[in-house]
Amino acid sequence: MTGFLIGRDVRVKPMIEVRNLTKTYMTHERGHTLREVAKNLFHRPMKEVKAVHDLSFTVQQGEMLAFLGPNGAGKSTTLKMLTGVLHPTSGEVRALGLVPWKQRRQYVGRIGAVFGQKSQLLWDIPPVDAFYMNKAIYGVGDREYKQTLDELVLLLEVGDVMRKPTRQLSLGERMKCEFIMAMLHRPELVFLDEPTIGLDMIAKENIRGFIRSMNSQGVTFILTTHDLGDVEMLAERVMVINHGAIVVDDSLSGLRARLGEKKSVRLTTETAVTEEGLPGLSIVERIGPLEIAVEVDTALLPLKRFIREFNESYGIIDMSIEQLPIEAVMKELYTEGPSFVSATREPEVIK
Ligand SMILES: Nc1ncnc2c1ncn2[C@@H]1O[C@H](COP(=O)(O)OP(=O)(O)OP(=O)(O)O)[C@@H](O)[C@H]1O
To answer: How far apart are CA 351 and CA 206, in angstroms?
Structure first.
């Protein structure tokens, strides 16, 4: 394979193998009442928090996995274990053939990370100087450094930007530089946590384009985000966790299929729509006195019939029909507990 990982052994192989990964935090119980607080000064009882419970999955080389879940689902805890920052309570992880928390020095030289809410750059110095610092930390040779930097600068168009002090950069410019910082040592596996948070549409598209380009050159990405636009534009596979357990592990198209035959329809009518009245129809939002957003399950109510009946009853002035957004299925998954489990991938055995 040519491209970003040139010279690396990039045969398709499991990048990450996770088996029965569990993390339980032990925390001190806090009292709520004054009496409890006073009592806890002498004896503070411990409480178990099961953040991640029995996760098993495999990520292949070159995959782009969106790792999603509602607040408190256990995503950060899992990512901390996958990056080697945190020891699990039990279970195994093998990433790039290494145990992240045991072979950390070797491991960090081969992975990268970008956190939308945490900067790796230094506020008062230009990104280009911070890049040079990373070159030294990762022991990147002069020729390889120049070649990689030139390639990334060209892709992200930050030639002038990277010479200004970081504090003078816009968020979009800074995020591009964060990506260069994370990619200079040509990592094979990259963890992204909210990489487009706060960016405008153009900047988001730039960053997403860059991620796609790196992925097409063989870099494996694990993406955590609450921005479903990132998921729709980037991910092939979506894993959702909730209450520390996998709720679903499916392709993006598989997830879309769960939406069934539903369509989102926005209508402006001559007279106000009074009631739902048809099987397969539900009102989602009343936007104005004569404007309404509805959901139509075309398996129960064919669009032709819906349009005819609505036109006869209320007179259609304007209408737009769209596929239901992926948010509809996510909302369902985020509110379901682990009993909803329908992981589609069989865990493989760690050899
Ligand atoms: N250091 C800690 N000590 C005790 N409990 C913790 C600790 N870190 C996380 N937790 C708890 O573990 C659970 C999972 O937290 P985690 O941060 O992994 O969730 P998350 O999916 O990343 O959430 P978010 O989307 O809000 O960042 C939560 O109930 C959280 O309160």
So the answer is: 40
Q: By alpha-carbon position, which residue is closest to atom 10 of ligand 1?
A: 51
Mean of pLDDT over the chain: 88
* Cβ(73) – ligand 1 distance below 6 Å: yes
CA–centroid distance, 50 to ligand 1, in Å, is: 9
Are 103 and 200 found together in one domain? yes
Residue owning the nearest CA to atom 1 of ligand 1: 25
Q: Please report which confidence band the pLDDT of residue 79 belongs to, taking 50, 70 and 90 as the band edges.
A: very high
Q: Provide the whole-model pTM.
A: 0.81
**Regarding beta strands 262-269 and 189-193, do their DSSP bridges make them parallel or antiparallel, or are they unpaired?**
unpaired
pLDDT tens-digit map of 111-133: 999 998 899 999 899 999 999 99
Domain CATH number, residue 264 = 3.30.70.250
Same domain? 293 vs 200: no
Residue 273 backbone dihedrals phi, psi, to 5 degrees: -75, 125
Domain span including residue 286: 260-323
